[in-house]
Protein 1
Amino acid sequence: MIVYNTLTRRKEELRTVHPGEVRMYSCGPTVYSRAHMGNMRAYIFMDTLRRVVLFDGYKLLGVMNITDVGHLTSDADEGEDKMQKAAEKTGKSPWEIAEHFTKLFFRDTDKLNIGRPEIVAKATDHIGDMLEFVEALVEKGYGYETSDGIYFDISKFPSYGKLSGNTRLSDNIAGARVDVNDEKRNPADFALWKKAPKEHIMQWDSPWGRSYPGWHIECSAMSRKYLGDTFDIHTGGVDHIPIHHENEIAQSEALLGHPAVNYWMHVEFMQVDGRKMSKSLGNTYTLDQLEEMGYSPMDFRYFCLNTHYRKKLNFTFAGMDAAKTAYSRLLALLAACKNSDAETDPKIISDFDKAFSDAVNDDLNIPLGLGELWTLLKNPPSRAIYDAAMRADKVLGLSLDKCADKKEDDVPPEVREIAETRFAAKKAKNWAESDALREKLASLGWAVLDSKDGYTLKKNK
Ligand code: AMP
Ligand code: ZN
């Protein structure tokens, strides 16, 4: 398996620490609000990586954290605490808020066929592990106390910045710009541990009084606990490269005296109009919203898989419609294969198996793998093609076996014609005609679900 390593900036053959086993850590969600589809792109990437590892026959030990304390301000852990704010706004406790959004997160990931890592670790369950880590760093001289917390002294870690190649840190690190703490030795020093003001709801005892962990220490402490002092792969979004992962590297290597992670893998952004989809920009969509518009979770998964994880992906409804149509067609073609008695030359099938496996093993080139599947489907339908697609679906995770249940493709031509006329009327803002045609469709047993740029038909049960 070949993977692109952000640290070395090139593709490398994956060589695991433990033969036949991959151990990987993925930065998980912060759970003070609802995860959006940009986040979901990151977890579809994580899931695809997991699937390729399993497809190749490795044993897999995956860990993902749930950030229910820390990282609740900015990436630099400065500014106002969003969990605290959400608690004040809703009158709920931070624990209730975290539980609520964690549940929703897993509801979404389940719908998107995102497999759960073997270990899902909540930050608040690991306060002791983090505290030990910070105490050891202080003992070794990497951490120092200020009036508001314990900070990591980056001048003691000369290779700071090696992941991002960002060596002039004092110029551009986020923490430096908003720096209000003149007790820090270097502008880019970051908080390992924070002293809690009285009103801060989440706080624990520590040698430095009532306090709570910084965000970065969570991932260093939990990855070490579950995966050991050196493990294979660490994943996250590209936004984590310059601060969060740089800080994780500093903490872990300072403590261990050697690198903890062999391969760093990062997924590019999902964008909207050229800007990152993010909570702070207010340009997010949730899975519920997409479903209300008539898109299925698999339409979204297909949309993501069709672009390589290291390329930016612009979220558009035209793109979602194209994905929906392609996915629907894929299911229709496979439905025809499932019950076919025809045969396909075994060489065509084995060539496909090889081409697909080569593609996905080449730094997760899923778009190429999908292309191979489409090429295979140009052959006359056969059960052997269906079976090959099911093997590929172990990596794709597109529920291709559901093809037989796909109803949208059975739309009779006369129903389609009425729906098209209605869509044209709606586009022309001819509401009376469009409503009348919607009723006509309903009387024939069909419901129309409108989206921004199209519609889908659903048969009423
Ligand atoms: P957060 O909950 O903000 O810490 O984000 C969870 C994961 O989603 C991280 O790995 C982020 O890098 C990733 N992420 C956030 N926004 C996007 C986006 N627009 N596109 C892709 N990944 C994202
Ligand atoms: Zn992390």
Protein 2
Amino acid sequence: MTSSELLYSDPLACAAAAAQEIITRTGVASHDVALVMGSGWVSAVDALGTPAYECNAEELTGFLPPTVEGHSGKVRSYVIEADGKKVRALVFLGRTHLYEGKGVEPVVHSVRAAVKAGCKVIILTNACGAINTKFSVGQPVLIRDHISLTAVSPLSGATFVDLTDLYSKRIREILKREDATLDEGVYVHWRGPTYETPAEIHMMRTMGGDLVGMSTVPEAIAAHALGAEILGISLVTNAAAGVTGKKLNHEEVIAAGKAAADRMGALLKGVIPQLF
Ligand code: 8IG
């Protein structure tokens, strides 16, 4: 069976195989935390120092080659030391999205592999549009909760998973203690690859959505279902459709992300050891 066939026929076995490869290649029996770096967040990992290990994600079982600009498709292992603690961090530079049309399995494969490789905390970062006008471009926002508008779940079968504390309140409080300027919001998951119409943004605002993007939600659900604690951080890179009257442009979105990434990298580095 090819690695891609295994991904679709037995996704958890595929994740376990990838985890074993990560353990063997890094020589780290158990990582503590995984970070998934979305658009614009890739440079935030510079704050984590020099990686102890790096490979191309596609060398590992079940990982697809990257397709989106700003997503480099690397897997790295870092040692983060602070307060006398030594934390092992697994970092995924880039992710697979639902809009790529390959189904949900490749979207959640990295976080499943991370949990199987020992990670107890999964940090999901993304770039998003702001529905709520209190958020400005370049602002990082903690995800407090989500609304899924894709009708897609990474889970199937009679597994009725509780999502009342999906985005860990414990972790959000630690981040807000470290940086009192951090605000929180409800993230709406939109399949894409189209951005929303202004009418759809109006609908999302009416529903209670603050932020909108095309990632994070399936990964949060899949990792939580395997027992991990989740932190989601969205970097606002544009006002959502119809909010300013301007059209949305992917290049602008990438540029706005880079500007704020350094600050977030330093924040994450300081906070990660406190989570354990
Ligand atoms: I960055 O305005 C980014 N990603 N759906 N809408 C959706 N995804 C996004 C947006 C946006 N901005």
